[in-house]
Amino acid sequence: MFPAIRNNRVDFYYGGGKLFSYTAAGFVTHIKYASVLTSTKNYVHEGELPSLNPIDSFANVYDRIKENCTLYSGLEAQGVSEVLRAFGKFMNGRAQSIIPLDIEICFDAADAEPFETDSSKRKMDRIDIVFYDMHAGVLRFCEAKHFSNKEIWSTESTHPRVIGQLCKYKRQIDERKNNILAEYKTYVGLLNQLLGISIPEPESIDENIPVFLLVFGFDRDQLNGRLSRLLLNDGSLRDQHCYPIGKIKDIDLNNMWKRTRRGE
Question: Disulfide: which of 78, 165, 206, 212 matches 241 by Cβ 3.0-4.6 Å?
């Protein structure tokens, strides 16, 4: 379970989805996760349906809700969920410097209409993950893409769509870095109070690598073939930073932090 603090609520992520939000009104979840009946069996006959009842408590079917949450998650969301497991390891006392600090960070889009007041029409830039080096006090932002995502692919020596995303995010961070840093100092303070931990306040956003691309979900042949030829070694990522890892379950955040490299 990964907690993310928002305005007047805390969101809890699990298995690639937002499992619960907690507000002043209590816990709330999407109906597709809570659509379970009170039954101890996985299969029921049609004649048994009248005897089944809807749930009257989230706690009574918590495991079923978590199971449903994973069923609706795509490949990228599942991959991000694996990365977020590092926060649980930190909470369980495993010493590590790098932790995932936040997820699905939203800014008003850099190319949005500046005076748009209708929130339903307002464009948003959404960055996948914020990583935090607790020893150095440094934040770094990340866009995560599965190997199958079309946004990381283009013809040889041309820029795929993801480059536009990374450039927008860099501008956002550069223009708002003081505000972003102040917000995350507050964020860490609230996290410490809520969870009874002692994460130090962030001191800066990484000037050398403010945002990077995390690519995952490929095998050795794909790494040596398409990934190297059309993304890593053809100039597509020039001036951008990237960290490729085949099996996202094997990710080591300390290694990721050290080995994220600028594209050639």
Answer: 212
Of 130, 241, 111, 237, which is closest to residue 168 (Cα–Cα)? 111
What lies within 8 Å, CB to CB, of 237 at 6+ separation is 163, 213, 231, 262, 263, 264
Looking at the 3D structure of the chain, how many domains does it have? Answer: 1
Confidence (pLDDT) at 94: 80
- Residue 144 placed within a domain: yes
Entry pTM: 0.88
> Cβ distance 246 to 223 under 8 Å?
yes
**DSSP result, 232-262:** ISSSTTBT-EEEEES-GGG--HHHHHHH-EE
- Identify the DSSP state of 208: S
Q: Which tokens hold the place of 61?
A: 């079917």
Q: Three-class SS of residue 143? A: strand
Distance CA 92, CA 166 (A): 33
Is residue 82 in a domain?
Answer: no
Residue 114, pLDDT score: 37
pLDDT at 122 over 50: no
User: Does a structural domain hold residue 125?
Assistant: yes
Q: C-alpha dihedral over 257, 260, 262, 264, to 10 degrees?
A: 170
